[in-house]
Each structure stands twice: as C-alpha cells, then as structure tokens.
Design goal:
- The protein is of the alpha+beta class.
- It has a domain at 49-111.
- Helices cover 41% and strands 19% of the residues.
- It contains 4 helices and 3 strands; from the N terminus they run αααββαβ.
- Strands 2-1-3 form a 3-stranded antiparallel β-sheet.
- It is globular and about 35 Å long.
C-alpha cells in the first residue's frame, strides 16, 4: 500500500511540475520596454535627493497606463510621487500646505 501511495505522489509531483512550466513558444518581455522604463525613472529622479524616488516611480505604474505623475521633493531625502491630470497642475500638487514655493522635481508620463 505504501508503494502505491508513494507512486501516486511521485506521479502527481511530475504532473504539477509539467503543468507549471511555460510553453516553449512563450517569449519574455522585450528588453526595450525595460530599458524605456529605466530611462524614465532615471530621468524623473535625476533632479532630486528624494531617497525613495525610484521605488515610488515604479509603484506609480499602478495608476494605470499613460498616467501623468509629478515627482515632489520636500527636502531631507523626503518626497512623493503624485498623480496629476494636467502638467500645469504639477506645482500645486507638490506645494507643501498650499505654500508658494514648489518642490517639483519632475513630471513623468508613465508608459
């Protein structure tokens, strides 16, 4: 009886491994897409000391394709990435407590 159970478990394991492998015709994403996103992130964070800028710009992809975002730098390594609807809204989106000075570092259109 133990041999039959072990044999069935082995067969199930092989079946699961075979089913989880991607089909041989499946291709990986184009490297140009990754390079394009990397260039957007590098450019969007080039003029800021905001420490989490790159990570937060990557998270901004959840806003949806072609989302427009402002990279705000509040000093001391802090900041945020906020979604905006128009480029001209970027300075207001980044202003601290509605203040006059704007810590806007960049405006980025996500892919």
């Amino acid at each position: 009886m133990n041999v039959r159970v072990v044999g069935m478990l082995s067969l199930m394991t092989v079946s699961l491994v075979a089913c989880s492998a991607p089909p041989p015709t499946e291709r990986s994403p184009s490297p140009s897409i990754d390079a394009h996103l990397a260039a957007l992130i590098t450019g969007g964070c080039a003029n800021t000391a905001y420490e989490r800028c790159e990570e937060d710009l990557l998270l901004a992809r959840t806003f949806g394709p072609r989302a427009l975002v402002a990279v705000c730098d509040y000093g001391d390594g802090t900041g945020e990435v906020v979604q905006i609807w128009r480029k001209r809204d970027a300075r207001n989106a980044c202003s601290v407590d509605g203040g006059i000075s704007s810590p806007l570092a960049a405006v980025v259109r996500m892919p």
